[in-house]
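Our preliminary data section would be incomplete without showing what the modeling component actually yields. Below, a chain of 871 amino acids is followed by its predicted structure, encoded as tokens that our downstream tools consume directly.
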Amino acid sequence: MRKENIHQILLIAGDYDVVQQVRQALPSGRFDVQCAFNHREAIYALNLDQFDALLVDSSMIDRYTGTHTVDALLKRAAYTPVVALATNGAPPVDIQNGVVSPLEQKTLYNRVLQALEQVSPENTMQLPAQHAPPGDDILSRRMDEINALFALSKSLTEVLDLNEVLNRVVEAARRLTNAEEGMILMPGEGDKPELYLRAKIGIDADTARNFRVRQEDTLAGEVFRSGQPTLIGSSGPQKVKTEYFVNSLLYVPILLQNKPIGVLGVNNRTREDMFDIHQQQLLLNLASFAAIGIENARIHQETQEHARELQTLVEASHIMNASLSMEETLHNICGQLISVLNVGYAELYHWDKENGQLHSQARQYRAIWPTGQAPLLDLSRQPILRAALDTDRFRWLTTDDPVVSSEKTHLEQVGARAMLVIPLRAEKQVMGAIRLFYTVPPAEPLQPEKVQRVRSVALEAVASLVNQAEMRDYGRSNDIFRLAGKINQLGGADWCDVSLPVKGGGALSTQARVGSVVWLAPPYSVVHQKDSPDLFEAIQPQKTIQITPDGKISPAVKMLMERTSGRTVLGVPLVQRGKVKGLVVLADMERGKTFGPREVSLARTIVGQAATALENATLVSDLEASVQELRDTQERLVQTARLSAMGELAAVVAHQINNPLTTIIIDTELMLLDELPGSKNFQALQAIHRAGKRAANVARRLLAIARPTDQNATPEMIDVVDTVKGILQLMQIHIERSNIRIMANLPDEALPPVVAVKGQLDDIWLNLLMNAHDALVGWEDARIGLEVYYVPERRSINVVVWDNGPGIPEHIREQIFSPFFTTKPVGEGTGLGLHICREVVENVGGTIDVESVPGHHTSFIVRLPVSTYVE
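Predicted structure:
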């Protein structure tokens, strides 16, 4: 039934984009556009119906005869105006009604109107018989319908794009049934039992936008579940979905191997025309062709996706193995995991079985949270953040700060050692805040002008986040990532997050987090096995762990989800040579569904490639470490040889000096016998005698130090105070010459002896005093303290050597007793002094400890057990 005052237009085009452009140019209130997607469909449509004008793609041909469709239509529809659409070149013949190129809406609309005006009433009355409806010629009409279905099936075999297949089927369904609306409903990817609108014609965009129906208690759902068609006509308005009624409908299942994969339906919403059994059979036949076309398109799509996945895996493998540097390899692995799997978070943990923990090796953020799903920062638990917002001044927080707060705890949990908080204001209004995180605190705090530059970029990021939320324009994500990356670069941070205020003013929501970090040394971000036993039980059998918001999870695994701030989390064990070496954790901030089987398989494949890349990088790193250790050993051997030579030289020099000193001391003693006490010569001789004995004592100490320790030497009863005094006498002038005061607190009474090899304890005091001296050179009000006291309850003698110098940094405190570890420049230290001290102390059954406050003092406490034979 033709609508009054509406022009019937037949569009012949194989490109669905052309169909959409034409429909946008010709408003539905004045034009009823029907489509034919190939040459044979066009011929069938002309046999079946009457049209006011034809629009044809000038490049379309009959695949079987090679005839241009434009030529065929000009001969067949002599009284119908034809407008050519030059989409892929010029038309093959001159057309009276012109050519439209390019497909601009205004040009196309005007050209169609011009073509319609050229048709006179006389011409429309003299249409050839082939344009008249078939009327009573039922057989002819059935043959035309069969030919149309055959042509459609042929066209569907030529199309491998799923959307185009669905749209062609819907177009054919409406044309075969002369319906107002056509649709294809198919189930979604989630677990919800709903059918979604996948293709439509005649349904307005607003209705189609949220068009979905339940599989239960709906006509379409019943067709899908039962696999049987539904035809409803004259029983009154039928409810398709909520507040959507039609006068008549016809729904048939799309079956693939007798299993429903969708529903093909047509509606008459305003017309009173009813559908019949014949039309139902036509749609069933059409649905059969549609099922084959859909399956072909699906297989083609899967093949393309598989090819893309293989290409992606090849590229990812190339990138992850591009460098043999451990730091670059870890960074590349996290980057590829985020890129390939389209997630917002990736972290790689190493499994330390001995200590029962997972510690982070690398982490990368590229996350934007949807409004209402972002993690909240409660200002009542964020004193640094709150203070920054209240004062409009940036604030620093480090793990060395004495404050105790949830912010400091958070720093330790994420493996950062410093955080910079910058408030964001515009015209005195709080716009939000950014937090910059550092695994290594900057050597110098950021200058105010650089902080201002960071703030400017952050305000731009905040504006982009607000616009994205208001317009739901998620294409802005790349812009936000770019701005956040610039913030990290300007601030020298590893990662940053951007937070916006929440209504009520009591919290901020973290809307974006961007950056990456690699840990090659502690402090790491750690997950302890005792806190998450079920997590460790899951990764040992190499199981993939998946966590969703609505899933049943244990508190320990929930902790992992909270650490990522993701809605869906996937954990993939990292396996090397059949053994679990770590865990890769991925998190998505937006999806409310699980990772699909293909995504999980893809994740496992990439993690497998990552394991190989890490193993290669580890081998190279170990080789480099071995080569470096060999070089260091060579240098130590050379240094040891030098020290040995210097010791021998010192012994020779001491011996050579000792002989004339002996003469000086003996001669002065003889001369003093001949002088009267109190005379000038007597005093001078006494001074010479004292100086000679002092020099002889120095030579004796040098000989004792330079003499190699006899491994078979018998331990003796040693007076600790005497050994301390001897080394102090040897070093005092050298130390005081550097403007360093010595504050000795030695007991006057005798202390119990310590059993040790003679000369070994001297090495301890000499090394400790030399280290203190070297640390204090150039230090204002430099002081070295030396104290000896007895602790009866522990039966030990404690010797404390302290200084008020710069102190020892905490991160190297555990290494100072390691052999050859030194912070001095090359050539100025051997790194053996403290190691020798610990070896000697442990040989006599004692202990040595260090206490240090950077910038204030350092104290070495030596505890030596007294002899058990002395009461």
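The chain has 22 helices and 32 strands. The first strand starts at residue 7 and ends at 12. Preliminary results of this kind motivate Aim 1 of the renewal.
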